[in-house]
Amino acid sequence: MTYVTKPRLHHPTLAKNRLGFTRRDYEGNVSTLCAGCGHDSISAALIQAFWELSIEPHRVAKLSGIGCSSKTPDYFLGNSHGFNTVHGRMPSVLTGANLANRDLIYLGVSGDGDSASIGLGQFGHVMRRGVNMTYILENNGVYGLTKGQFSATADKGSKAKRGQVNTEAPVDTVSLALIMGATFVARSFSGDKHQLVPLVKAAIAHEGAAFIDVISPCVAFNNHPGSTKSYDYVREHNEAVNRLDFWPSREAITVEYKDGQVIEVAQHDGSIIKLRKTHPDYDPGDRTRALTYIQQHQALGEVVTGLLYLHPEAEDLHAHLNTCEVAFNRLGEKELCPGAGMLEKINAALR
Amino acid sequence: MSETLAAQPVENAGRQAPSPASGKAITTLSEHIVEVISDSGEGAQVCGQSLGAIAARMGNGVWTLEIIPAEIEPPARSTEGASGSRIRLGSGRMTNCGDQADLVVAFNEQVLLARLRAGEFKPGCIVLLESLWRTHPDKEIAASYLQTHARLAAAGFRVYEVPMERECRSLVADARRGANMFALGMLCGLYSLDLRLAREQVARAFGSKDAGVVAANVALLEAGHGWAEAQLDFKFRIPALRSLEPQIVVNGNTALALGVLASGMEICAMYPITPATSASHYLSNVFEKVGGVVHQAEDEIAACSFAIGASYAGKCAVTITSGPGFSLKQEAIGLAVMGEIPLVVVNVQRGGPSTGQPTKAEQGDLLAAMFGSHGDAPKVVMAASGIEDCFYSIITARKIAETFNMVVVVLSDANLATSQQPFPRPKFSEAWMAPPADQSAVPEGARPYDWNALTGLARRFVPGQPEGMHTLTGLAHDRRSRVAYDPEINEEGIHSRSLKLAALQKTLKTPPVFGDPEGELLVAGWGSTQGAIEEAVGRLRAEGCKVSSVHLRFLQPLPPGIKELMQRFKAVITIEGNWCDRREDEIIDEGNRRYSALAMLLRSRYLVDVDCWSEVRGQPIKPGTICRVIREALERNREAARR
Questions:
Q1: Which domain holds residue A67?
Q2: B464 touches chain A (CB under 8 A)
Q3: Whether residue B275 has a cis bond before it, omega within 30° of 0
Q4: Which residues 205-264 of chain B have a CB within 8 Å of chain A?
């Protein structure tokens, strides 16, 4: 069926990353989404980010739910592991996988129907648990696979392709992630690769719950006048609070910026995020102010993008649970068997 | 009973109980059923469980049953608030709660009435009744007490008034909250139980509190013992026939949790639900000491999905729930079936449908376990047949789940969940544990669903495994796990997943028949009813009835040899705790009668005319009831043969 595998041959002069892989090694199958779909741009940004970070593909697990967005893991990182779960339940499957094997890099890929409607509960809980992951929400405000119904992120007053007007208030996933305790929260636009790629790289390096809401126009059902998730609307109303540059810990920082415009944030793993602030009053280290800021601009019809919140000292689920350093799925009987003494104690307690 | 006791100086701690009244005759019994009932929160359950534990340590057979009100704090002195324990003590092994009580300790007459109305007491039953209410300042209460007392005496019950609270008053500040230990002492005296063991048990029950609490409760225990020795003119002895091999005394939920521990599953996902929660609680306590994680998810769906995630990542996990939670998990179970992810799902059944009867026993979920989840979703269904089997079922379930990459549903129920029974201390076997998932590089050319043509089995790839990269999916997929809607590929997947059940079936043994291998009637059962059914069959066989029974632990697949086994009997009837239509209803005939779950399965699979009898009263089915049902069935069959 809709399965087009790309030929493995590629040009011998293609650039290689530190591991010797070309960008092509991070690609997946040919996308079967509509031409011009924002999601494909996001896939491209993910490929770029993983390639640039020189991450071994077999160390990555991509988990997704159901929907156009959740199909995309097929179109990037074809040499990684994947799990296309059920609608709205990717967060809990990812949490379980992460608990059983902490050594993998987890990428959660979801959409607005998946995360803001059927999976709203799970979305909130995966953030509050601080699961170490990069959660990408490909947000187009519309149900694509079922042909154009409003999703819960569609703005009130926004028009559907057939002219219906959305009468309900939207779920703002960025504010929700902030309230639920995510330690890395960003919003971007699928059409803005220069902003999105560094954000993805920083999110991967973040050792906690990292969330990026990516507005991603649906060319088939939500790219018309009257939609607030169309390319034109987002380009006109995008208010970037900062521009990001990301350096993994190993690399020397060579770029310089003018004082007063740049702040540096070091993450747990030693990586550095440099923010070129375009809005001088924006402080990504303050959760409360971030919420206020987002909502103030929302009221003005502006879509605030950029790194909106970062907790540099984030802790993850494993730190909360005080689990062992070795991945659970590698522990053998020697480590797991409680030992005769402890078993005797348990038995004795049950006489 | 509570911390409040500690505040009170205990003058009588360590007092020697008076020696037994001379000349008191000791009646030797083979078994007795005792009930201790009180308002909720007065500690009758602790009393009953302690009595069971002490008797078990003396080598007696014991089965304790919790009498649970539905509310956490029901009104005091109300029939609906009756809370406590039934303890069946015997010389031999006890496998169920028995029929009617021989002796009851009641903390007020209202809770007594509740059990009386339910028909739980034998004619002439001994009643030890708290006498506090006789002189209660509230005239209505006193009148109610007197009236009940008179009624019981007139009905032939042997009523003894016991001033429990008055006797406790000299020992503790809050005398009402000490009466349970006083009652325990009394019962230890009445049943000639070892007072030293009783003291140890009390120390164990209150061991987490400070020494003052233990001392106060031991004093109450001894006071009760002394009172019974001095004031009551009867005494029993139930000799222990069992060898004193080491036993553990646990309820079915604890046994489940121990099974999880023994099977090497260190990840359990749950959402609080009655009556399953205590299994996860116990597991959580033990994991605290030995390592492991109980994940309390945001809902039942997330709990199941979490377990699937862990299993996907190579660490087989279990999720423990009850009926409503089981319904919610169905979509996720389908995902595990489709992805062939090993998973153990425990359903501690309660009354249904919907919220039903959360604290009551029912066997209503068998068909949901087999056929739940849309589409063709073959999964293994087992049912624990007793408390000990709760332990072993989980170990078997984990092994099957990982060997066949299947979902294994283990059914227990509220009866097993809260009943306690001693069973031989399990001897740990290394074979129970699972080695870590194979994470070596996948050989070139191997595919994630290389279904074996004979068995449907395929090697599982774990994420992180070099060269094992693929995208697991709940969509129809080919051998490389690629989404595919082609007619052949879809059929191949469904075919292969179905074959696995047949492959498992080939490894199962025909279950043993209890009684002769042929006869007039075969009684078939599953789940928690094994003890009661076999006791009833045993009683009737002793009377010369040609009846036998068979109990099924595997319901899907059904083990081989069942049809042949059934055909050696003139008739077959199932006894189950789920609904079947009553033949005596005017509107019911063979064309519309709904059969009980197992009967339906046996009829459809083997084309044998299996009858059924069921009860959905929320209580364990009693052996006496089953005797009556079997007699009626035998009579009905003979009648039909004569016609």
A1: 23-321
A2: yes
A3: yes
A4: 246-250, 254, 258, 261, 264
